[in-house]
Amino acid sequence: MNIRSVSQLSAIGFAATMVLFTSKHVVPKVQAHEASEGCSVASLSGAYGEVLRGEVLGVGPIVAVGVSTFDGKGNFVADQTINSNGNVFQAPLTGTYKVNRDCTGIADAVGSGLHSFVIIAGGNEMDLMDNNSAEVLTIHFTKVASGKNDHHED
Prior knowledge:
Blueprint: H1 6-26, H2 33-37, E1 45-56, E2 60-71, E3 75-84, E4 87-90, E5 93-99, E6 104-109, E7 113-120, E8 125-130, E9 135-143
Antiparallel strand pairs: 1-2, 1-9, 2-3, 3-4, 3-5, 5-6, 6-7, 7-8, 8-9
């Protein structure tokens, strides 16, 4: 049996204490940036691609794709193509939005009413649902990257 001396055990204990002490002060804490600072209307700013899925009750399925642009001040515009039960049409939309500190909010789309949403991924995404009792739908928004188009014609 190998028994360590008191000085060896003290040295090991001291080294372990130093590792724990150093790791507490060197390794940064992981923090939920969004949760600690909260959200505001400025959390939604710029262009977001959108994908809508759902059903208009008594009519049938509805899907849409488009781009919504949020001004960071509480206003938005949307350019979207909708397929409602096989009928395809363009449906531009405008409205306003309010954001709570907990990153939830309400969008008021002119002509289609209130929608509840939650901002996720540091403002790069948002999930929204319709509050209208005649529709069951959700929309997922993903921030459109701003940058140069990397597609080149030869």
